[in-house]
Amino acid sequence: MTLASKITVSRIVLIPVFAMLAWRYGQSVAAGEANELLRWWALAVFLVAAASDGIDGWIARRFNQKSDFGAFIDPIADKGLMLTGVVMAGMFDWGAVGWRLPLWYVALVFLREAVILGGICVLWSKHRHVAMAPHWTSKLCTVLQMFALGWVMLRVPLFSPALACIPAALLTLWSGIEYFRQGRRILRM
């Protein structure tokens, strides 16, 4: 296993650690005794895991450590971290009442991922080759989704989390449409 793949696997290992810390923080907020140390630990684990995505990709490209295993496991790690983050930031208040990702946003992120996964399954069932290269809108979408998650976890009071989700939601829709179009083109081949 390459160093890049080991970093990717470590990101997968950090997902339940983040989830546990976020869960415990959410429970402490619900009990009226917010344990801010848990919030900061959850945020730190999430940031380390998110940063590892760029690091493993850079190492794979820079040191020629691209592998089939890495190409397979990296998107799983990315989706696992993002979806766990969206659930944790949408399930619990992160401070004041209502300071969380709105339900419509959580549903949109999950819908996009379900459509993409469903499309991949359809293409595989039709014996079509599915390239694992992300579209540029997907990369920007990920950045904006991370921004929205960070907005909630950091509790930046300039505007509500719902407003922070609007750019991410627009790119989530756009990238989902791009993947749908790409899937249709592959299916027609």
Task: Describe this structure as you would to a colleague.
With 189 residues, the protein is an all-alpha fold. It has one domain (3-188): CDP-alcohol phosphotransferase transmembrane (TM) domain (Four Helix Bundle (Hemerythrin (Met), subunit A)). The chain is built from six helices and no strands. It has helices spanning 3-30, 36-62, 68-91, 103-125, 136-154, 161-188. Helix 2 (36-62) runs antiparallel to helix 3, helix 3 (68-91) runs antiparallel to helix 4 and helix 3 runs parallel beside helix 5 (136-154). The longest helix is centred in the first third of the chain and has 28 residues, at 3-30. The mean pLDDT is 92.
Structural class: mainly alpha
Low-pLDDT stretches: none
Strand-residue fraction? under 5%
The CATH homologous superfamily is named CDP-alcohol phosphotransferase transmembrane (TM) domain
Brief digest:
With 189 residues, the protein is mainly α. The protein has six helices and no strands.
Label this structure with key terms.
189 residues; Four Helix Bundle (Hemerythrin (Met), subunit A)
Per-chain topology:
Layout (H helix, E strand, L loop, with lengths): L2 H28 L5 H27 L5 H24 L11 H23 L10 H19 L6 H28 L1
Helix pairs in contact: 1-2, 1-3, 2-3, 2-5, 3-4, 3-5, 4-6, 5-6
